[in-house]
Design a protein that fits this description.
The protein is of the alpha+beta class and 99 residues long. It is built from three helices and four strands. The strands form two sheets. The chain has a two-stranded antiparallel ribbon.
């Protein structure tokens, strides 16, 4: 079991979860629209869940059904960040400002 960051993190990236993670498994750069959890580094402690202001973090088993794909997207980010960014964009296209 691992924790997964889902769709409500997109375009928010509050980073409260990053501050409390004891193993620094929550990753993402300024160009990313969301944060990701490295499933190989996550120790399943759950420290990141409560600080998240948009309820984006769930155990893999408790992810809402419409977010199941985010398990793979979080894992993909570690291997291929650009491919993960493309998957995020496909799931939730960027809305131009002023639109």
């Amino acid at each position: 079991m691992t924790y997964v960051i889902g769709e409500t993190c997109i375009d928010v990236k509050d980073k409260s979860c990053v501050e409390v993670c004891p193993v620094d498994c929550i990753i993402g750069t300024d160009e990313d629209r969301m944060l990701f959890i490295d499933p190989q580094e996550c120790i399943d402690c759950g420290a990141c869940v409560d600080p998240c202001p948009v309820d984006a973090i769930y155990t893999e088993e408790d992810l809402p059904p419409e977010w199941r794909e985010y398990t793979e997207i979080n894992s993909l980010y570690v291997r291929d960040p650009e491919a993960a960014r493309e998957r995020v964009a496909a799931k939730k296209p960027l809305v131009p400002q002023g639109a």
